[in-house]
């Protein structure tokens, strides 16, 4: 069951507010730049206009008497050549001769315009030192401060509007996210779409309603199947086992018949345990582990004898080198199912040679030489109905093994080594393959329950 709903680390509302604030700050900075540039450009255009008027007057005067008059504005002067410029203006113009506006020392600022009378008359230079006539530069700090406070006010307003709009826009989505986060197999929210408007969130809510209805119907069908299967399978198995026990009590029973009946009773009991395990998988019941790891060798020997029918008529040898102290942390029925499928597959797909069953590196290893399996198929063999071409099976054995390993957190690996297929199953206290490896389940969780 899921725990209490947690707030997402990156909330959509906060991101919308930050987007509004960032946009407002960008617009304020852009318009502030435009405003300052406009003021500077207007001021410079004003001085250039004054220079144009004065230059026109000077050229008219020069055309009359060949001389230059005293400028009408006190901040303007006429220089016959650049060598008579003030020192700071001369130095600035020598470094950038193409400019007409120069910054001097001690706050002085110059605008320069060339006077070009008709040839062969000698030209001159009209220079305006406008430091005392500047309007924008003395007010620059105050203008920038005013623009800064205005930008902050715009950002604050954008945050308020963004918060209101984000809250209004994301409230339905947040409610839907809370409902989805609280979903559990035994707690499905009903009629989600009834509380949402007819917009994109409403479409999503209606889709979730349809999905939950289909999922609930599937769960109901699965529960009905597991209930019916539990009844229909357990009853005949119990009858078979009971009949076998009564036949064992017959005094005239031969020794061979008694052995067959013992084998039949053991198989019926094992089948009951298998049905219980498979139904547990279907119901998603809590994982129950034994109090202590069980011995591997007795179960392995019994499974080898049971699966030996796959070797009839084949020149195949079975080598079992498993120490008596080898143990695995699994219930006995689960271990029996795992080994039956893995060893049965190894026997069925080996036509000749040796099937080697041993322990290496803390893992039970089952190796056999059979038909080669392509790498892309080997990585998907655990999927239901997935099998190699020509296989007589249904492709469910490894799928069952994979589900059991995932359920009981057992490390399982399928590899090909030197032309042999090798299945590795981690034993108790052994470090399995790296987490996240293909076809691998992680180690047992601390929360797994143990039987009494």
TrEMBL record:
- Residues making up the signal peptide according to the UniProt record: none
The record's region (Disordered) falls at: 430-452
Q: Keyword Transmembrane helix on this protein?
A: yes
Q: Which residues form the Histidine kinase domain?
A: 228-431
InterPro entries per UniProt: HAMP_dom, HATPase_C_sf, HATPase_dom, His_kinase_dom, HisK_dim/P_dom, HisK_dim/P_sf, TCS_sensor_his_kinase
Which GO cellular component term is one of those annotated?
plasma membrane
* Gene Ontology molecular functions: phosphorelay sensor kinase activity
What sort of enzyme, by top EC class, is this? transferase
Q: Where are the transmembrane segments?
A: 16-41, 146-166
Where does the source fall among the domains of life? Bacteria
- Gene3D superfamilies in UniProt: 1.10.287.130, 6.10.340.10, Histidine kinase-like ATPase, C-terminal domain
Q: Which SMART domains match?
A: HAMP, HATPase_c, HisKA
Domain HAMP span(s) in chain numbering: 167-220
Q: Which UniProt keywords apply?
A: Kinase, Membrane, Phosphoprotein, Transferase, Transmembrane, Transmembrane helix, Two-component regulatory system
Q: What is its EC number?
A: 2.7.13.3
- Repeat as a keyword? no
For this protein, what reaction is catalysed? ATP + protein L-histidine = ADP + protein N-phospho-L-histidine
Recorded protein name is histidine kinase
């Amino acid at each position: 069951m899921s725990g209490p709903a947690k707030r997402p680390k990156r909330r959509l509302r906060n991101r919308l507010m930050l987007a509004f604030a960032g946009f407002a700050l960008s617009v304020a900075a852009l318009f502030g730049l435009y405003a300052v540039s406009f003021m500077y450009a207007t001021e410079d255009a004003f001085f250039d206009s004054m220079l144009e008027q004065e230059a026109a007057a000077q050229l008219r005067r020069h055309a009359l008497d060949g001389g230059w008059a005293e400028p009408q504005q006190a901040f303007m002067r006429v220089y016959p050549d650049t060598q008579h410029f003030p020192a700071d203006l001369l130095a600035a113009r020598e470094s950038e001769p193409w400019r007409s506006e120069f910054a001097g020392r001690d706050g002085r600022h110059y605008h320069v315009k060339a006077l070009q009378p008709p040839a062969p008359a000698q030209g001159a230079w009209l220079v305006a030192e406008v430091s005392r006539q500047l309007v924008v530069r003395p007010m620059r700090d105050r203008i920038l401060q005013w623009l800064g406070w205005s930008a902050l006010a715009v950002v604050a307003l954008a945050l308020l509007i963004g918060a209101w709009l984000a809250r209004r826009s994301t409230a339905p989505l947040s409610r839907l996210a809370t409902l989805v986060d609280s979903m559990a197999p035994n707690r499905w929210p009903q009629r989600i779409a009834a509380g949402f408007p007819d917009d994109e969130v409403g479409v999503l809510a209606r889709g979730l309603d349809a999905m939950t209805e289909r999922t609930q119907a599937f769960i109901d069908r699965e529960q009905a199947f597991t209930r019916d299967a539990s009844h229909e399978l357990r009853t005949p198995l119990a009858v078979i086992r009971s009949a076998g026990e009564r036949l064992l009590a017959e005094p005239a029973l031969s020794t061979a018949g008694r052995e067959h009946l013992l084998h039949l009773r053991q198989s019926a009991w094992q089948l009951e345990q298998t049905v219980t395990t498979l139904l547990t998988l279907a119901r998603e019941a809590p994982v129950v582990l034994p109090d202590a790891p069980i011995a591997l060798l007795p179960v392995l020997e019994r499974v080898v004898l049971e699966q030996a029918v796959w070797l009839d008529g084949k020149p195949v040898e079975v080598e079992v080198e498993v120490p008596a102290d080898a143990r695995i942390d699994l219930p006995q029925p689960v271990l029996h199912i795992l080994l039956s499928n893995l060893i049965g597959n190894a026997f069925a797909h080996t036509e000749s040679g040796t099937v080697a069953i041993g322990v290496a590196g803390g893992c039970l290893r089952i190796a056999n030489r059979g038909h080669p399996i392509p790498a892309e198929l080997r990585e998907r063999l655990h999927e239901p109905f997935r099998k190699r071409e020509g296989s007589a099976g249904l492709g469910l054995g490894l799928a069952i093994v994979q589900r059991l390993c995932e359920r009981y957190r057992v490390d399982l690996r399928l590899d090909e080594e030197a032309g042999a297929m090798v299945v590795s199953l981690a034993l108790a206290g052994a470090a399995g393959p790296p987490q996240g490896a293909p076809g691998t389940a992680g180690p047992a969780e601390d929360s797994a329950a143990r039987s009494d």
